[in-house]
Structures are given as C-alpha cells and as structure tokens.
Structure to design on (144 residues):
C-alpha cells in the first residue's frame, strides 16, 4: 500500500476549543448555584441530594459544593488525623495514634495534586493548597 491517503488510517482530531467548553461549563455551574441559592428552588444536581452516608436524608445545604477546595479539605483532615492532631470520631475526644507514613502519603498526594493543577486553579485555590501543604509539612516535622 503505497497510497499516502489511505482512508483506513486513523484521523487525529484535536479539540482546540476545550477551554471555551470549560468556561461554558463553569458558567452553567455558577447559574445552577445561583438558582439553588434562591429559596423554593430545587437543586438540579443529583450529587447534592444525598448525604455522605448515602442514606439520602440530607438537605441540599448540608453538603459542600464539589470543587478543589473540598478535595483539599478532605485530604487536610485525613492528614491531621494521621498526625494525631484531630479526633477520628466526632463523638470522642480521644486522639488516634500517629501514623506518619500515612500522613506523608497524604501530603505527597496533595503535592501531586498541586503539581498537576498548576495553571488551572484560581488564585484562592492555589493559595489554599499552598497554605495547607505548608501547615501539614510543619505538623509532620513537629510530630514525634
């Protein structure tokens, strides 16, 4: 087959307008959040209709909006628990045992998240991630 215009060769399609699509999705999300903030309107996202335990009894305002801030806060909380700085059970004041290898793993995961999202975060998101990483590193170093 010496024909250079072989129709069976795969075509590479470059989606050059992905940034425009992301901007549209963000705009739609902002409109949905604004609509959800109005009294008497139901949320259109199924993720806001169930609570974290999965029993479906949560009110729409009970869950934080999905986003990078929420992801970072989940990792931050886990790292603090592994460093013995936060109770693992909200009904108990007893601190869990320190697990430095797991704390380091969570901190390393946040570092990967920071590297992979560079240039795709807002200033506030970037500052939050940097502050969380700094605080966790300091807590890690000060933990025995």
């Amino acid at each position: 087959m010496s024909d250079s215009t072989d129709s069976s060769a795969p075509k590479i399609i470059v989606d050059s307008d992905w940034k425009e699509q992301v901007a549209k999705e963000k705009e739609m999300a902002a409109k949905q959040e604004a609509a959800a903030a109005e009294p008497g309107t139901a949320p259109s996202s199924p993720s806001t209709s169930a609570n974290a335990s999965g029993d479906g009894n949560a009110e729409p305002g009970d869950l934080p909006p999905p986003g990078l801030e929420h992801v970072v806060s989940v990792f931050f909380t886990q790292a603090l628990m592994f460093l013995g700085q936060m109770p693992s059970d909200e009904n108990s004041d007893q601190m869990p045992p320190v697990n430095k290898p797991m704390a380091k793993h969570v901190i390393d995961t946040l570092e990967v998240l920071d590297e992979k999202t560079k240039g795709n975060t807002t200033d506030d998101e970037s500052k939050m991630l940097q502050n969380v990483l700094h605080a966790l590193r300091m807590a890690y170093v000060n933990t025995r």
Remarks:
- The CA atoms of residues 36 and 43 lie 5 Å apart.
